[in-house]
Amino acid sequence: MKPAPLVGRNSGRNSSTTQTTTVQVGNTTVGGTDLFIVGGPCAVESAAQLEAIANHLGPNRGNGHIQALRGGIYKPRTSPYDFQGMGQDGLSLILNVSQRHQLPFVTEVMAIDQIESLSAHADMLQVGSRNMQNFDLLKALGKVNKPVLLKRGLAATIEEFIMAAEYIASHGNPNIVLCERGIRSFDNYTRNVLDIGAVVALKQLTHLPVIVDPSHAAGRWELVASLSRAAIAAGADGLIVECHPDPDQAISDAQQTLTLEAMAELVESLKPIATAVGRRVAEPQRQLVAA
Ligand code: PEP
Ligand code: MN
């Protein structure tokens, strides 16, 4: 392994062999005892879509099952003819719901010229799988004062993943959360293969929080709850899961998207597993304000 003095263990600012560095995302701490559960659509589609999710799962009017909202406004799509995201119009929609529901949000930044507007409003910036080795983007995110959710490349080795995080840290931003989201294989029954071993290895090799995206790993909603439980049992610090008020109508990734009811059920089902591994499903931090 190439040296990773900043994000690696047994060196740099954290020489403990077990302690995870915590990362603050809005009003939530990632990497502590409480799990960090992110839910939301693949892509921001409408105000009504986000409002329904926050009302059902958010802390203010919902049951507090998620600590942050996800939603892409810039979407990396395989085909240039597919929906590319709502862009800046989508940013206003997710920002509005996030503020009224005290629910921090994470959204993907695909290019350096999107950093300024996204970092002004988003609570966390996601680097998508296809950009994990976009080194100029990583360097630019090193200069930003917002946490970064770094997703593993489609076919990236663990060493390449860790070095991508080291790029961000070495350019000045230590607030990084790693995300295992499945890797390519020969089998196309699942969209990718969830690499649970990588979760364990990343927790041993780095002091960064590690979360799991079972949605893009599986590509099938029927597998998402069980993979989520496996991830938490393996020591993941949280999950990022696609859910939608009407999954069959989702513009992108409908097949892997959970209903809001299934999402709530999934989080409830994590409770005994979290307890067994010394973690906790977070209690809602309600600060009632007019919504
Ligand atoms: C996403 O989370 O919206 C996404 C596109 O995921 P990935 O980059 O892991 O494919
Ligand atoms: Mn998606």
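^ phosphoenolpyruvate complex. The domain at 46-278 is CATH 3.20.20.70 (TIM Barrel). The longest helix spans residues 260-276.
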